[in-house]
Amino acid sequence: MRVLLLLLFCAGCGAQPAPLMFGGARHETTVDGHRYTVYRKANQVEVIREGWAAPRDHAKIRATMIAVVPWLTGCDVLPSTVRGDSGEMRDSVTCPKGRR
Q1: What are the domain boundaries of the chain?
Q2: Containing H/E element for 10?
Q3: Using one digit for the tens of pLDDT, what is the confidence trace for 38-57?
Q4: 81 near 91, Cβ under 8 Å?
């Protein structure tokens, strides 16, 4: 019973940033039925996909995770810095003057 309550509690938590991203700006969007949360702090971003995805969708989801960063933050992803998978991804970004 305790395990069930713990699982229910965790399911309601939603996307939480890595400790490195605490205090960063939070942005949310839904694309093709998948919900994404983006955290940006200085020149770093973390993208989290919430929910389940079929294995055949993972390549498309990774591309979407990279695409939502400039859309939500106004900053461009540095491709050589992309780390992670279709559930959680971290990148460095370069932002136009005024978006730093």
Answers
A1: 27-100
A2: helix 2-11
A3: 999 999 999 999 999 999 99
A4: yes
Tokens of 23: 């205090």
Judge contact between 46 and 28, C-beta under 8 A: no
53, 61 in Cβ contact below 8 A?
A: yes
For residues 71-93, average pLDDT:
96
- List, for residues 24-34, the tens digit of each pLDDT value: 999 999 999 99
Q: What is the CA radius of gyration of the chain?
A: 14
Whole-number Å distance between alpha carbons of 64 and 93: 16
First to last CA, the chain: 47
